[in-house]
Amino acid sequence: MKIWDRSTEIKRCIEIARSAFNKMKAILWNGKLNIEIRTRVLRCYVFFVLLYEVEAWTITEATEKRLIKFKM
What we know:
The protein has 72 residues and is mostly helical. The chain is built from 4 helices and no strands. It has helices spanning 7-23, 25-28, 35-50, 61-71. It is elongated, with a radius of gyration of 14 Å.
């Protein structure tokens, strides 16, 4: 069985998620909103974009580190 390298697809998803984060930046950095609401927006919108179709990925240790780094 051949393990497909998904690094290009994962990099693309990270860039799309970064773009989604930048679009939501005004909401995420709004001090008037409760931190819980901002966290929910981050999880529901940005992380959803990042992890779309993640169950189909075969991840290497380097890719896992890249995903963890993005989430921080």
